[in-house]
Design brief:
The complex is a heterodimer of chains A (about 220) and B (about 200).
Chain A: H1 6-23, H2 25-44, H3 50-73, H4 78-83, H5 85-90, H6 96-125, H7 130-157, H8 164-175, H9 177-184, H10 188-214
Helix pairs in contact in A: 1-6, 2-3, 2-6, 3-6, 3-7, 3-8, 6-7, 6-10, 7-8, 7-9, 7-10, 9-10
Chain B: E1 2-11, E2 14-24, E3 29-33, H1 40-47, E4 55-60, E5 63-64, H2 65-68, H3 70-73, E6 76-79, H4 91-101, H5 108-117, H6 133-146, E7 151-155, H7 163-178, E8 182-186, E9 198-201
Parallel strand pairs in B: 3-8, 3-9, 6-7, 7-8
Antiparallel strand pairs in B: 1-2, 1-4, 4-5
Helix pairs in contact in B: 4-5, 4-6, 5-6
Classes of the chains: A mainly alpha (about 220), B alpha/beta (about 200).
Chain lengths: ~220, ~200
């Protein structure tokens, strides 16, 4: 037999995450439906003034994406924790940082990308012009990974905590404020900076929190 | 090979055990006994690095396991209380994934033959949620067959297994020991091995 390899691990980890998501399709679907519905009820609750709608569109889409991504965050480690597979991952001869990063990557591919793909349709509902839509999509492309990364910290901190779902939101929402401000404001370079920062720190923080949660 | 000295376990503000010292050499099997809550699981979790001892040290070939890290983890197999089986995946997929996650590619053939050895021939392609508790346990034990770790840390692996399966696991442990492997088995049941085994008794 060969030596343990990181590439083999990452390949199997992604295969596992995708297969599990595929066999529990309703989870991802519910999240996307939630995203669409939240963004769609906003205009119903206010003055149908097209100028106002156009102004608030980026903010509404961003807030909806944030809420939807929090909805899915609990599943990142939750079921692995209850059935003991997380414990098994911790005793594999693989760096936990890599496992956590792989799981976040899978989460982003499965939930983040569909959010970005749907967002132009939502922008259309608000009558956002092409230029504004383009800016919104670019900011979501850079911003949603940040939501996934920060969500992973929240998920690992609340692992095994009763009523974890609400607490995740309490931890993650304030941390996402900068992303929201830069994202809805369409400030791409600042989002890029925040993305670089969270890419470095979030997996590491989530991995440390996981160790504590499993202990 | 594996040496522990003066291990102490504290959970919350309760000391569960203290001064646990033993040495495991190739071919040794230890049976870990003690009443509920005496810290059997905690001790095993310490030995695989999931739990940090409040006091004392664990050394593998003379080096602390915290320092060895992944090098040590590649030599052990831990089976916990919860079998670590994903309900949505089949027994076969579970086995291949768990090998894959430790970075080792396991062929379909090798996985199937390991599961056959544990008596899961007709059921390895069913999602694990359709398997009984004992069958899930067997699927988890298949990890030991395909791995090549030196030290097995088994936590109540024989619960919910029928007599036949218990016998075959004891045979597996014997084979493993005669190959120079080591095992620490926490169990309330009797352990019948052809060779002798030592005991670690944890007091309540």
């Amino acid at each position: 037999m060969s030596k343990p390899s990181h590439m083999v691990m990452l390949r199997w980890l992604l295969w596992r995450e995708f297969t599990l998501a595929w066999r529990r399709k309703s989870d991802v679907m519910a999240m996307l439906a939630f995203f669409v519905i939240v963004a769609s009820v906003f205009p119903l609750g206010m003055d149908p003034d097209s100028r106002l709608l156009r102004t608030i569109a980026p903010g509404v889409v961003w807030v909806s994406a944030l809420l939807a991504s929090i909805l899915g965050v609990g599943r990142l480690f939750g079921s692995d924790y209850t059935d003991g597979t997380l414990e098994q991952m911790l005793v594999t001869p693989q760096p936990l940082l890599l496992i956590v990063s792989g799981k976040i990557l899978a989460q982003w591919l499965m939930t983040g990308i569909p959010l970005v793909v749907i967002s132009p349709l939502l922008a259309m509902q608000f009558g956002l012009p092409a230029g504004g839509t383009r800016m919104l999509v670019v900011s979501l492309i850079a911003g949603i990974p940040i939501l996934n990364l920060i969500g992973a910290i929240g998920a690992s901190l609340t692992l095994g905590v009763r009523g974890g779902g609400a607490i995740v939101a309490l931890i993650v929402l304030p941390l996402c404020v900068p992303v929201l401000v830069f994202g809805a404001g369409g400030n791409a370079s600042l989002i890029g900076a925040v993305l670089a920062l969270t890419l470095v720190f979030a997996p590491w923080a989530a991995a440390s929190a996981l160790r504590i949660a499993v202990e | 090979m594996l040496e522990t000295s003066h291990l102490q376990c504290v959970r919350g503000n309760r000391t569960i055990f203290r001064d646990v010292s033993f040495a495991v050499r190739p071919g040794d099997c230890f049976r870990l006994t003690g009443p509920n809550g005496s810290g059997k699981t905690s001790l095993l979790r310490m030995l695989c690095g999931l739990l940090t001892p409040a006091c004392g040290s664990i050394q593998w070939r003379g080096t602390a396991i915290q320092r060895l890290g992944e090098e040590y983890l590649s030599e052990i197999s831990y089976l916990g209380h919860r079998p670590g089986i994903k309900d949505e995946l089949t027994a076969l997929e579970n086995l291949r994934v768990s090998c894959g996650l430790s970075g080792i590619e396991l062929s379909h053939r090798a996985a199937a033959s390991a599961l056959e050895r544990l008596g899961l021939s007709g059921r390895m392609n069913l999602p694990a949620r359709f398997l009984s508790e004992g069958e899930r346990r067997r699927a988890a034990i298949a990890r030991l067959v395909v791995g090549r770790s030196t030290l097995w840390l088994l936590d109540e692996v024989m619960t919910s297994l029928d007599r036949e399966a218990v016998d075959s696991i004891q045979l597996m442990i014997e084979d493993h020991l005669s190959d120079g492997g080591m095992a620490i088995v926490a169990t309330h049941q009797d352990l019948k091995l052809s060779g002798s085994f030592q005991r670690i008794e944890l007091a309540a």
